[in-house]
Design brief:
heterodimer; A: about 110 residues; mainly beta; seven-stranded mixed beta sheet; four-stranded antiparallel beta sheet; about 0% helix; globular; B: about 110 residues; six-stranded mixed beta sheet; five-stranded antiparallel beta sheet
């Protein structure tokens, strides 16, 4: 069964550093997403991406965040100047329409 | 925006018993309601979904019911097995929200052998 692949599975970074989280969506999917889940809290929408541009973003997705699809297969989330409160599980997902397929997530720990 | 509430946060059942997880939503325009199962170390996996034009949907031991008037939907797992132990998330997608989902806080289900 096709999978969404995320790397790394765990990333530890110093506060103020930049991190890039990587995702390989399912190849024939058209919509791509990033969600995050702070420990014990809801899964929160960050951004959706369609046709090589952001289609929606939440209030969380401020200027420190950016997304890219650099080569037609990878989909990346960059967080500039990380803060302690950015520590969370970050999930990538892709879809044709309707239900998502999620990746296994990247646990980001900012110290 | 949409707000999805999910109860209970934790649920323990004996193997073979049924488990019910309930969610409410606030936006009457929501028209798609998926349920996800998340096992330890894995991402959420879609297990069943229901659209607003349907009141109930079944898939083997799993069923989902939707009450649009009351704005709540429930996941029912019958004849539970230890491998059903996981965190379950409900979600709602409002019409016009693009493809953004709003998730509940999750229910940690433990099936005791």
């Amino acid at each position: 069964e096709p999978e969404v692949t995320q790397t790394p599975s765990h990333q530890v970074t110093q506060m103020g550093q930049e991190v890039i989280l990587r995702c390989v969506p399912i190849s024939n999917h058209l919509y791509f997403y990033w969600y995050r889940q702070i420990l014990g809290q809801k899964v929160e929408f960050l951004v959706s991406f369609y046709n090589n541009e952001i289609s929606e973003k939440s209030e969380i997705f401020d200027d420190q965040f950016s997304v890219e699809r650099p080569d037609g297969s990878n989909f990346t989330l960059k967080i500039r100047s990380t803060k302690l409160e950015d520590s969370a599980m970050y999930f990538c997902a892709s879809s044709e329409w309707g239900g998502y397929t999620f990746g296994s997530g990247t646990r980001l720990t900012v110290v | 925006g949409e707000n999805v509430e999910q109860h209970p946060s934790t649920l323990s059942v004996q193997e073979g018993d049924s488990a019910v997880i309930k969610c409410t939503y606030s936006d009457s325009a929501s028209n798609y309601f998926p349920w996800y199962k998340q096992e330890l170390g894995k991402g959420p996996q879609l297990i069943i979904d229901i659209r607003s034009n349907v009141g109930e949907k079944k898939d083997q031991r799993i069923a989902v019911t939707l009450n649009k008037t009351a704005k709540h939907f429930s996941l029912h797992i019958t004849e539970t097995q230890p491998e059903d132990s996981a965190v379950y998330f409900c979600a709602a997608k409002p019409l016009g929200s693009g493809n953004q989902f709003y998730f509940g806080t999750g229910t940690s289900l433990t099936v005791i052998p």
